Amino acid sequence: MTPREVRGRITGLFQITVAIGVAISYWITYGFQVHFPGTTIQWRFPIAFQLIPSFVMLVLLFFIVESPRWLIYKGRDEEAIVNMAWARKRSVTDSRVQEEIAEITAAIKEEQEATSGASIKEVWAIKLRQTSPRKLTRAHIGSFCITKITPTLVNNLPNGRLFFLFAAINVLGAAFGFWLPETAGVSIEDMDVLFGMVTREERDRYIAAELEKRQAQMQSVDTEGMAEKGEVRHIEF
Fold first, then answer.
1. pLDDT means per 10 residues in the chain (237 residues)?
2. DSSP 133-190
3. Global model pTM greater than 0.85
4. Fewest Cβ atoms nearer than 10 Å: which of 4, 100, 105, 148?
5. CA dihedral of residues 71, 77, 80, 84 (deg, nearest 10)
């Protein structure tokens, strides 16, 4: 539900939060190894300490509304519009809210049409094709490799050489980013178009059809409301 204008900053804050959490966990583990050697608290406290933020997150989950994307996927369109309007601090009839809902609905319908009647193997193949290369590289391959080689690098690259190696990797990663399409201010649904999952013409056609359907539904509701008011007035007279 993050607005496209601030999605990059929110993602960056998320990454910073994860990095800070990992750093804190390393220092806690190191501190207990130094000050409580040979005791069970050396490993019991670092494991138990993780339950505190987990519990806080569990409690806060009860105060978060359901994702409009998930609601639309489950066929609960009206709830999706209400939640989107709540997240954007706008009316359910606002044009921007209606457009975002139409984009999400179009993307979900395209996905359902692409996977309709397909086997589990074929669905996974479609999902992999629709996954951004950056996500696969960064979240899976990169994390796995760094986790595996870090202990070896710590032992074989003393005097700060390890930090220079990581700095060089970051510089190369930043250089690689210049070859990727710009996603600033682009919605998640528009990324399908950006990375060639669907053409702009197909997406616009789906969105136009959804907007037309929703406008017709709103007009029907308004007409029924006016008719009911007319009946009430007639009774009052």
1. 74 84 86 87 88 91 87 88 88 85 83 68 59 53 72 75 78 74 65 68 78 76 57 43
2. HHHHIIIIIIHHHHHHHHHHHHHHSTTTHHHHHHHHHHHHHHHHHTTSPP-TT--HHH
3. no
4. 148
5. 140
